[in-house]
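re: ur question from the group chat, yeah i did fold both. here u go
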Amino acid sequence: MIGRTAFSTGESSSTRRRRRPMPRIGQIEDQALFYLRTRGIDEVSARQILLLAFASECTERMKESAVRAFVQPLIESRVSQMAHMSREATSAARPQREGELQ
């Protein structure tokens, strides 16, 4: 039988108790989305900003600059298309107010 100390992480039990659980990705996204929305940015644009920020972090880690230069515009284009489709879906689902032009 292997003793418990064989799997020790080198941390005391008090250190483990003080640690707080990491927030989930959804919580981080919700907080960032809330922040952008309170600054007057519409939801679709806020999501687009968050997606581009995440994609930018990923592409910055690419070692090959040629690959990065190729991938970055593709990602930006796709995120822009997604935002455009989302705006169209949102405006189509929104009921028209009396006297409002289509």
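okk and heres the other one u asked abt
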Amino acid sequence: MEQKHNITEFWRAAEQGDLQTVRQFVEVGVDIHSRFEYALRTALQNGYLDMVDFLVEKGADIQSMKERAFMEAARKGNYITLRYILALGVDPKLDLRQAPEEVREWIAQYINSSTLNDKLQNSLAEKPDRPSFNEGKL
């Protein structure tokens, strides 16, 4: 029962962007892969890049959710997150059959265009391959 309680609290901390609490749970051995990489998915969806960086460093599998992570960032127009996950080596080749129409339109408009490239290049000043962001929230 204690383990189930801990995992629920871990997920809640990830949802709230509480990196300090997420770190504490990881230090005591919580399964960061639980619920299909839920903590990592949540951090990506909310732009908590410090948390994403920490979880990936601790072994979270960003490649397992490459399409979902990329599509979420694209849907929200979060160019900082797009650039970040591309820097982590996520392959942006997507299966768009299940994508909402707005995502398909966005991808068709920007994915191979210089406009997206310009936005990605201008969204961040040059950063190391694994950037860190203050307070984990953009």
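fwiw on the second one: DSSP finds eight helices and no strands in the chain. Confidence is low (pLDDT under 50) at residues 124-138. idk if thats what u expected
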